[in-house]
Amino acid sequence: MFFRRSLEGLFALSACLCAANAHASASKWEHAEGGSVRVVIASAPDKDGNLAGILQIRLKPGWKTYWRDPGDAGVPPTLEIASGGGAVAVQMDYPAPRRFDDGYSVWAGYDSDVSFPFTLAAGQAKEALSASVFIGICETICVPLQARLDIGSRTAEQQASDATAIAAALAALPKPAQEGFAASIVAADKDKLTVEAQLPADASKAELFVAATQSHTFEEPELVSQEAGKAVFSVPLLDPPEDDGGQQDAIHYTLVTDDDAVSGVLTFRR
What we know:
By secondary structure, the protein is mainly beta. It has two helices and 22 strands. Strands 5, 6, 7, 9, 10, 12 and 13 form a seven-stranded antiparallel beta sheet that branches.
């Protein structure tokens, strides 16, 4: 798929994780009408002292789940990790989504199996781990899937499979925004943002996904124009605050072309 890196990079990352995660742990699968969910966590920290993990979702044919910003009526994936009864900070990442129109709303999500990579501060995860998960999965109706999952040890064969799953999820993430492939706000009106995207010269289409913040929510970005190496989007603001005190806001975005994707942050100050 467009967001996958080279096979060589995937195999190298998988081999690295298999070596490091000799005792990777995972929960059992929790099943619901439209799919299943589990959590996998590596026990060996990475070079930055963090533990890698994934929130792994299997969807039945015809079912979907949501991106980090689910739109007006969706449910964003939520994951909480506890160690010995205390909360552990979780930093979750998101693969590039697709846009869906169900006739009632337009929203961003996934219609096939998906894994959300996350990191934990290894120093906080010292005792038995458990996870609380809340996701929405939808066919013609949406079903909330809420579960508390105990994370236990695995056999050697399972550990190798889990390490490969973590590596594949990390490899599927959008790359960080970079020179020549990134987005920035070029104008801000009362009711919309104008975002300019720099694209690879051979990109034939572009889509922009933006996530709501505590201060601002958005309608779906509209492609205004596109030419070689550049696209312009209009991003309507929903119920903008009358006075936000000039505070700077960080808006997470994912920019998708026909065969690649990057993620970054739009800096917004009214």
